[in-house]
Amino acid sequence: MAVPVSVDAATAGPVRAVSARHFVRLKLRVMGNNFRGQGWRVALFIGGALFGLWFAASGFFLFAAPGMTDNGKYAVLVAAAGGGLLVLGWLLLPLVFFGVDETLDPARFALLPLPRRTLVTGLFAAALVSVPVLAVLIASSGLVLTSWALGGWSAGLVAVVGVLGGLLLCVAASRAVTSAFATMLRSRRVRDLAAVLLAVTAALLGPLQIFGLAALRETDWTRLTGAATVLGWTPLGAPWTAGIDVAQGRAWAAPVKLLITAAAIGALLIWWSRSLESAMVGAASSGKAPAQRGVTGGAVTQLFPRVAGSFRRDRFGALVAREARYWWRDARRRANLITIAVVGLFVPVMINLGGASFAVDGGEGFTMGAGDSSPVLVTVSMIFVGVLASVTLANQFGFDGSAYAANVVAGVPGRVELRARMTAFSLYVLPLLAFVGVVLAVVLGRPGWIGLTAGSLAATYGVGLAVNSFVSVLAAYSLPETSNPFAMNSGAGLTKGLLTFVAMIVTAVGAVPMVVAAALLGDAWLWLALPLGAAYGLGAALLGAYLAGDVLDRRMPELLATVTPRR
Which residue from 128, 189, 550, 557 lies 20 to 30 Å from 66 (Cα-Cα)? Predict the structure, then answer.
């Protein structure tokens, strides 16, 4: 559906000016066309809507809690803190997911003769037609209930105006920031950096949740109420606290805060208007070309990254170099490495230090009990880390996609292919695992257990490489062609998830001899764990590459067809 624009007076027919409703109709039409004949997209939309409804219901009861309990002591704190988090979320998340809603990409309107004001108004109106906006509106409506319960209908009406102003502020902030950084966000390196930062955040959710729950037990809410009062006079909290001020007898503050909100929205829209042209062009000066450093060894040597520089310049070395370069440059792969590093270190420490009993000790700060750590418990926690590290290769061919055709055409033997992929992955993972093993032993105050931790990790990791080699050949699936490292095609459903789960179970079972040895051999195992564990893991990995390589030789065409994305 084309956007109708004004025509010259000589053109037959009436002249119709473009308004915001045309942009809204355009977005609805594009959404409808995308859903037509695409059942999986409809399912994803319904799933997203249900998640948004759950978020809306949770937020509604959170914002409405002071009114429902008839306790306005913390009403300002809930409104300012919750509303501020909403604004920050709308401000930051589009920097990672820019371009998901293509109808809001200003670059699509670059060739249309539309005034800048019309574009800003239309895109802003279209941005309001979305599930997230509806979810935020429902959630923040809890503030209306709180204001009405604490201060009557006048406070409730002011809260309605404040909530609507806050919603407009959220959308304006997200659109203005996204447009201002549109050119930069089209850079692959910047988007990779955003994806990496998101991976770190996702991996830290568990640790932050534990520390956050512990901190909440001893939080001085009175002091936080004072900070929330200050936050309420900033654009982050002003729209959400206007109704609360009226309910608590500060009616003079409401118009001032609404004025602050309106000024912030106006400033954001002006910023968006001025940055719209660069966002529509989407091109930036590439700057000066980087200076060429002295290169020795010829063109072939330049293709080998530093981490794989010591490998021979043969077929195996070339495969290792290619995979090593991909693991460092591909945002989806690099996100997995970050998850291994963060979760792999956090979980063993919490298991061995009694993370289940983590608590705040009566004003003495955070305390963690030493727990009943033992060689058996340490070995079990290391098995978890080894399983987590190796399962990343369960869909290693899916990362390649259609690029795997080059290996098929070249006729790379399956055994060489799998050994090279294992080696390249291990160049990054083995140092991480060694770091986890050393840190855990030091944190436990048992430096003599370094051999135990390292040996258990090596054995489990080697077994996992063997198991996941078979999984990656027999149960591969394609990944979507997107910059989002966490995106997943709907076709990779329950069956693939179950196969990955089975791979983790089989890997853990294969590492059970390490647990048995730790339980039976006592102190002698502290010396034998590292050499025997390393030999056990290396032997398992080589055997897995040998056996799975034969299967790969027979399934190359089928594997290529499986990992190639469907358009």
Answer: 128
